[in-house]
Each structure stands twice: as structure tokens, then as C-alpha cells.
């Protein structure tokens, strides 16, 4: 089956009510859905913050338009990426590259965190769009910003789609992951931002999960498949450790404040 036929077959399954009936009555399926919701939510909170910074130089009404156009492009790209991905993910070299990229994201996050600790507030403020950049000069302030937001959305989409493939290669998982990713980034990102403000360690946990998913994807190349019980167990341990670390850090901060 070629790429075009694979894409058509993938989205035809979106209307397979029998498949959805099986999915929604299977506890394991809800475990995968819950994993995607948490992962997408935590990652999208950070992504939404980046996009907000990118459009902050525009008037308020143009900010909403720029983000909306980016939203449409993100949906289109994700649906195309999922259709092609279902075909490509059967190749071992694609899994290896995908696992390597996810591992790179996780490692880069922790390296950037260390660098960010040394940055000043002024450096943080200057992380918006460069108004003298080639896109702004070529297409103007508004459309140049729209294209920049679109490119950033596509970058986030690649991360999200690869993470969904790492969780499972079942079509319904990928479709739900694609939909959730964009909805989370635009709709519920504020909720997760507040959650991360209260428990900052959750952001690091999201990238630890990406590293776990990268390992899971790489093991699949060698036909080593982690049973869903063990996979969900690792997630529970990761979140449990997050809350333990959070309360320890909070307690330590309170003790230092009293001293």
C-alpha cells in the first residue's frame, strides 16, 4: 500500500464506529488516552507560553488572528503527518530517528534549563520575534508573525506526533493525540501553566516521560515491546517521584525561610 492509500485508510478509520466502540470500552485504551492528555497538557503549556511571547508585539485583535491562523495550519500539518507517519513508522530507521530526536529533546531541555539559570531577566524579555528578521521584512509585521507562529506550531507538532507514535502506533491513539495536542495548546494550556506554577517539577517530568517514550520506541526496533502494565507503572512512578521531590523542595524552602 502506497503513502496516499495509507493516508486515506488512516482517516477512514476515524469514522469506524466499531473501532471507537472497542476503544472506549477498553480500560487500556483509557490509560493511553490519559497518558496523552497529561503529556500533551504539560508540553503544550510551555509551547503556548512561547507562542504568546511571539505575538506579544501585535495589537490584541491581531494576536488572536495570528494564533488562529497558526491553529488551522497546525491541524492540517498534524493530520498529514499522522497519515504519512502510519506508513513510515513501519520502517526501523524511522523509529530509530524518531527515538533519537525525542531523546535529543529531553536532553536539550535539561541542558537549556541549566543555561536559563544563568540568564538575566532582560535576556528573557528579548526572546520574542526579531522585528528585523527576514520573514517580517518580506511579508510585513502581521503575516511575517503568522508564518513564524505557523513554523513554530509545525515544530511543536513534530514533537507531539512523534511522542504519540512512541506511546502506541494504533491509529486511534495517533488521531486523538493529534487533536488533543492542538486543543491543549490553545484551550487548556492556561490550566497546565497554573499547575506547573504550583508544581514546577512537573515540567521536568514531562521531558522524563519523553525520554521513556524514546526508549520504548527504540526497543520496538528490536521487537522488544513493553507491556502496557509496565509502561503505565513507569508513568505512575515518575509522577509519584515528582510529588515527593516537590514536597521535599517546598519543605526545604520553608526551612530556609525560617532560618
Automatic annotation (TrEMBL):
<protein>
    <submittedName>
        <fullName>TerC family protein</fullName>
    </submittedName>
</protein>
<keyword id="KW-0812">Transmembrane</keyword>
<feature type="transmembrane region" description="Helical">
    <location>
        <begin position="132"/>
        <end position="151"/>
    </location>
</feature>
<feature type="transmembrane region" description="Helical">
    <location>
        <begin position="228"/>
        <end position="247"/>
    </location>
</feature>
<keyword id="KW-1133">Transmembrane helix</keyword>
<dbReference type="Pfam" id="PF03741">
    <property type="entry name" value="TerC"/>
</dbReference>
<dbReference type="InterPro" id="IPR022493">
    <property type="entry name" value="CHP03716_TM_YkoY"/>
</dbReference>
<feature type="transmembrane region" description="Helical">
    <location>
        <begin position="30"/>
        <end position="54"/>
    </location>
</feature>
<keyword id="KW-0472">Membrane</keyword>
<feature type="transmembrane region" description="Helical">
    <location>
        <begin position="171"/>
        <end position="192"/>
    </location>
</feature>
<feature type="transmembrane region" description="Helical">
    <location>
        <begin position="93"/>
        <end position="111"/>
    </location>
</feature>
<dbReference type="InterPro" id="IPR005496">
    <property type="entry name" value="Integral_membrane_TerC"/>
</dbReference>
<dbReference type="InterPro" id="IPR036259">
    <property type="entry name" value="MFS_trans_sf"/>
</dbReference>
<feature type="transmembrane region" description="Helical">
    <location>
        <begin position="204"/>
        <end position="222"/>
    </location>
</feature>
<comment type="similarity">
    <text>Belongs to the TerC family.</text>
</comment>
<feature type="transmembrane region" description="Helical">
    <location>
        <begin position="66"/>
        <end position="87"/>
    </location>
</feature>
Amino acid at each position: 500500500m502506497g503513502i496516499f492509500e495509507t493516508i486515506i485508510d488512516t482517516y477512514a478509520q476515524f469514522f469506524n464506529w466499531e473501532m471507537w466502540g472497542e476503544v472506549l470500552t477498553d480500560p487500556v485504551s483509557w490509560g493511553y488516552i490519559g497518558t496523552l492528555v497529561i503529556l500533551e497538557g504539560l508540553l503544550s503549556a510551555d509551547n503556548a507560553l512561547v507562542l504568546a511571547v511571539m505575538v506579544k508585539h501585535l495589537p490584541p485583535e491581531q494576536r488572536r488572528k495570528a494564533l488562529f491562523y497558526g491553529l488551522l495550519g497546525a491541524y492540517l500539518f498534524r493530520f498529514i503527518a499522522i497519515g504519512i507517519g502510519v506508513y513510515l513508522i513501519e520502517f526501523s530507521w524511522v523509529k530509530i530517528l524518531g527515538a533519537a530526536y525525542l531523546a535529543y529533546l529531553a536532553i536539550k531541555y535539561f541542558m537549556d534549563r541549566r543555561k536559563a539559570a544563568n540568564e538575566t531577566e532582560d535576556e528573557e524579555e528579548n526572546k520574542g520575534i526579531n522585528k528585523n528578521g527576514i520573514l517580517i521584512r518580506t511579508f510585513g509585521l502581521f503575516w511575517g508573525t503568522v508564518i513564524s507562529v505557523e513554523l513554530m506550531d509545525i515544530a511543536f507538532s513534530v514533537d507531539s506526533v512523534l511522542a504519540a507514535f512512541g506511546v502506541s502506533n494504533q491509529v486511534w491513539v495517533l488521531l486523538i493525540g493529534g487533536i488533543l495536542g492542538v486543543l491543549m495548546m490553545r484551550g487548556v494550556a492556561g490550566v497546565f501553566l497554573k499547575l506547573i506554577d504550583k508544581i514546577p517539577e512537573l515540567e521536568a517530568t514531562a521531558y522524563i516521560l519523553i525520554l521513556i517514550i524514546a526508549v520504548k520506541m527504540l526497543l520496538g526496533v528490536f521487537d522488544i515491546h513493553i507491556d502496557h502494565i509496565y509502561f503505565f507503572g513507569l508513568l505512575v512512578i515518575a509522577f509519584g517521584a515528582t510529588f515527593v521531590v516537590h514536597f521535599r523542595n517546598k519543605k526545604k524552602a520553608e526551612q530556609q525561610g525560617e532560618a
